[in-house]
Amino acid sequence: MATKQFKAESKRLLELMINSIYSQKEVFLREIISNASDAIDKIYYKALTDEHLTFDQDRYYIKIIPDRKKRTLTIKDTGIGMTKEELENNLGTIAKSGSLAFKTKNELQDDHHIIGQFGVGFYSAFMVADVVTVISKALGSNEAYKWESKGAEGYTIEPCEKDSVGTEIILKLKENTEDENYDEFLDEYRLKAIIKKYSDFIRYPIKMDVTERRRKEGSENEFEEYKEEQVINSMVPIWRKNKNELTKEDYENFYHEKHFGFDKPIRYIHIKADGAVRYNAILYIPEKIPFDYYTQEYEKGLELYSNGVLIMEKCPDLLPDYFSFVKGMVDSEDLSLNISREMLQHDRQLKLIAKNIKNKIKRELANLLKENREQYEAFFQSFGRQLKYGVYSDFGSNKELLQDLLLFYSSKEKKYVTLEEYVSRMPGEQKYIYYATGDTNEKIAKLPQTELVTEKGYEILYFTDEIDEFAIKMLKEYKGKEFKSVSSSDLGIEEENEKQTDAEEKENHELFEFMKKVLSDKVKDVRASKRLKTHPVCLTADGDVSIEMEKVLKAMPNNQHIQANKILEINVQHPVFQSLNKAFEQDKEKLKLYTNLLYNQALLIEGLSIDDPVQFTNDVCKIMV
Ligand SMILES: Nc1ncnc2c1ncn2[C@@H]1O[C@H](COP(=O)(O)OP(=O)(O)OP(=O)(O)O)[C@@H](O)[C@H]1O
After folding, report:
1. pTM of the model
2. Which atom of ligand 1 is nearest to the CA of 42?
């Protein structure tokens, strides 16, 4: 059966191209400049194999010429130019890329990389222009031609005059409308900003006559404006330079030029990957936390370049959430771009780069921790919470990667320690890694629940961040040692006084039952404490939800009323216990009063609010009179 050819309605196709591919009009300039750069590159390649041709870098440039009077924007290049046939083929056929053909034919391999591949970028000019005129003279030709088009209607080609080899693209800008101001593309500042944003690392100078001001000669306070030709782009991206050519200052300057932050980065990572995936990257670990970092407004991501041309200002897929504080850029030739160069096809390359970057950041942070503890602690103060979120999120799938980057305040060392350091110091008989939760280190240090563990001489990690306990529950253990809250019912160290407390529990069973009834559903149980030494009372929790977790969950907007199973623990060695016993025998009303008072005291110690503060203060007054 004969295969029929698809027919394309080229007029319609062009309209689609112009109106649907790009989300931002300003990218037309990026596309035209990229074509100009490709055209110069082509001369460079020709010179490699043609002995009659030399490539003298200084002769090649791109010039941007806005003309307010004529409402035109001209982009001129000294590249290879186009013959009549090439104008016809390359600009008269949508999706025909002369550059792609050139690349394939010349099997280009070295550092100069031609950008064009889809054969559509040129038409983006019609987003901002009614009429596009191309005047071109090809290398090795004596004739010049003018190609002109008003868009979908078609184009004309005719001979014209042009002195030098190269191409001039003249855009007659559209009239302004209520929604669109095309004049902006005649404005020097705006043009400069667009060039800097997308085309800063085009290898050839992008020049423009820029208006400057100077003091009038012979005058004190009179100024005059004058035009000066300036090169707008930086040209050589520092990421393509060798690391040994660059100084710390170069990296810091780049950080500031790119507006990654106002601070000085504490570490930078320069990656030149040339293996399974080829890319260059410069990454920074900032010193200071951005003001919006822990808000929804904060956007993570790295700048993404393809061949030095900006594709995305913030590519989120390159950074995992737990490293969202990292700033920087990635440049790769191997990306699968979509036709507008605004997005990437979700490809293997990008995933490989992201994985690679993730491991490099992890290694860099681990090195920082080893080499400069003070700086790491400062970093952790800013971004540690994000690392802990990382341990907790995604069902703990990143906990192995992140656990050695965590720091917690230690009761014994009185400073921040790693889990590794904690475990390496554990006495042989210590079963668990102990932790205590609270608002501040000072408050935690005073918690009655810590008494037994501290008396045993064991180290306690202080958890002051809401996320801490959740993250640790996800970790479950570190190097085979389980985590244990000092408030949990079984601390694993009560052997000696275990039997005694059990006996006391039995002996005072009726008293505790009475107290439990007084407190009704507020507590699950009232027990003799195995952990209290000097304090009369404390609250602990049975089960998976701790009192701290209950507090955090309660503060969440969609809280599910998840509650900890609270246990009121009484220190039977404390003189208060005698008073309780006495009241139990002689005055049940008094026992009720004492029970409520002790319960409310325990709440206060935990940082929980009292249901009825007025009742509480009345109760305190009652025992005074
Ligand atoms: N300034 C120029 N000098 C020489 N040739 C040019 C110039 N501008 C465009 N061309 C030719 O026109 C072709 C089509 O350009 P167009 O921008 O539409 O696509 P492209 O650059 O090949 O691909 P992409 O859509 O990926 O940018 C180019 O491949 C190139 O051969």
Report:
1. 0.83
2. 4
Give the atom of ligand 1 at the shortest distance from the alpha carbon of 123.
Answer: 18
The alpha-carbon radius of gyration of the chain (Å, integer) is 36
* 477/544 same-domain check: no
Task: Please give the helix or strand (H or E) that residue 568 lies within, else none.
Answer: strand 565-570
| 74 DSSP 8-state letter | E
- ipTM score for this prediction: 0.98
Question: 504 and 423 in one domain?
Answer: no
Does the pLDDT at position 465 exceed 90?
A: yes
Compute the distance between CA of residue 599 and CA of residue 525 in angstroms, rounded to an integer. 12
Rounded CA-CA distance 181/177 in Å is 6
Say if ligand 1 is within 6 A of residue 293 CB: no
* Same domain flag for 107 and 179: yes
| Residue 181 pLDDT grade (very low, low, confident, very high; cuts 50, 70, 90) | very high
Instruction: For the sheet with 278-285, list strands across it.
Output: 267-274, 278-285, 327-331, 302-306, 309-315
Among left, alpha and beta (phi > 0; psi -120 to 50; other), residue 218 is: left
pLDDT surpassing 60 at residue 495: no
Question: Mean of the pLDDT values across residues 18-31?
Answer: 90
Q: Is residue 76's pLDDT more than 70? A: yes
Interstrand relation of 481-485 and 433-437 (parallel, antiparallel or unpaired): parallel
Q: Which domain holds residue 589?
A: 498-622
Distance of alpha carbon 584 from alpha carbon 483, whole angstroms: 39
DSSP 3-state of 94: coil
Write the Ramachandran bin of 253: left for phi over 0, alpha for psi from -120 to 50, otherwise beta.
Answer: alpha
Distance CA 267, CA 542 (A): 44
In a domain, 53, yes or no: yes
Judge contact between 333 and 278, C-beta under 8 A.
Answer: yes
Ligand 1 nearest atom to the CA of residue 79, by list position: 3
**31 C-alpha vs ligand 1 centroid, how far in Å?**
9
Check which CATH number belongs to the domain holding 601 and give it. Answer: 1.20.120.790
- Residue 166 Cβ inside 6 Å of ligand 1? The answer reads no
- The rounded distance, in Å, linking the Cα atoms of 209 and 230 is 6
436 or 343, which is more confident? 436
For residue 563, pLDDT over 80 is answered with yes
Dump pLDDT digits (tens) for 275-300.
888 999 999 999 899 889 989 999 99
The CA 168 to ligand 1 mean position distance, Å, reads 13
> Which uninterrupted H or E stretch holds 36?
helix 27-49
Residues 383, 288: Cα–Cα separation, whole Å: 9
Of the residues 175, 204, 231, which one is the last residue of a structural domain?
Answer: 231
